[in-house]
Amino acid sequence: MFRVLTVCTGNICRSPLAESLLREDLPAEHFTVSSAGIMAVPNGQVPKPQVRIGVAMGIKDLPLHRAQMLTEGKLGVSDLVLALSRGHRKRIVRMDPQVVRRTFTLREFAHLASHVTPADVEGCIPESASTLHAAVEAVARMRGMVPPPQSHEDFDVVDPFRQSRAIYKLSRDQLVPAAE
User: Fold this and answer.
1) pTM exceeds 0.85, yes or no
2) Nearest to 99 by CA among 76, 71, 68, 127
3) Angle CA(140)–CA(104)–CA(85) in degrees, nearest 5?
4) Please, which residues have CB within 8 angstroms of residue 31's CB and are 6 or more apart in sequence?
């Protein structure tokens, strides 16, 4: 089982939406997807504007989500950690430096992965536990090889918590293409 962990601040807006989208798209027989927050209030609930966005996208499980705090244990068992901002990524790597090669922002991972070829993945297979682990390693090797976007902020998903409806939509519009 390949374990994906999405991480944001409170685990009530961005990371639950990313978790739901990835869980919907990745085959359950090969993947488990979960989420956590670096400053989560345990059992916190997804705000109504985010629930509405999820419902409009056909995601019905957001009202059932309860926030969980990020722990070293969750990081240690994750094969891929997708942070929703560069600040989250930095905090994750400080918490457990061993996860640096498998921790990205969601948008960074999507950007780098778009440059990975099947040959890149095959080149990582001998030193990886599986093809999926090889793919993550191939993406990690693209760091510094692929030109970054014009602004490093393009690797972040804006935090919509307690913001306007427009900011919730902007957050969705940044997150969804990267998750896909």
Assistant:
1) yes
2) 76
3) 155
4) 1, 2, 3, 4, 22, 23
